[in-house]
Amino acid sequence: MRRGKKILAVIAALCVPLFTATSALGQPTDPVFTPSEMPYPFSSAVQVGDVLFLSGEIGAAADGQSLVPGGIEPETHQMFARIGATLAGHELGFDDLFKCTVMLADMQDWPAFNAIYKDYFEPRRYPARSAMGVNGLALGARVEMECWAWNPQGKP
Fold it and tell me: How many domains does the chain have?
């Protein structure tokens, strides 16, 4: 086996416990889906093992059919409010996030987004993060973010 394949095999072996859902008896369990309250075909979150995967959120208004007005800043705050609500539904908070992926319709919004983003986390405890400029987001949003949260199986 080549060295690269050996390294991948070791990484996979280390990651399997994170994403393998088991019962208290050690039996495999199925993913747990949290239905979205939005009028679209997706789950707001899916629990797999000890990881809660949150769907991407945008700055959608309560009706889910439009964005909050005002651009990147109000959209970012609304996006965080929606993520916070999903986390709270699982008795989690922003400190439980360990990975976020940010999509921006215009990378020139990066400084404004970062100025808001940093206020939702404790200094020096930011989740690992990826960010990218994209060609388009749902409803014409300026920003979307999806996250992964640590949610040990003992919690709901």
Answer: 1
The CA-atom distances, in angstroms, between 3 and each of 7, 10, 14, 26, 121 are 6, 11, 17, 32, 38
Domain of residue 22, CATH code:
3.30.1330.40
Q: What is the pLDDT of residues 24-77, one digit of tens each?
A: 445 456 766 565 566 555 678 999 999 999 999 999 998 888 999 999 999 999
Residue 54 sits in which domain range?
3-150
- Contact (CB, 8 A) for 42 and 16: no
Q: Does some domain include residue 128?
A: yes
List own/partner pairs for 121-130 with CB under 8 A and 24 or more apart: 121/94, 121/95, 121/97, 122/95, 125/95, 127/97, 127/98, 127/99, 127/100, 128/98, 128/99, 128/100, 129/99, 129/100, 129/101, 129/102, 130/100, 130/101, 130/102
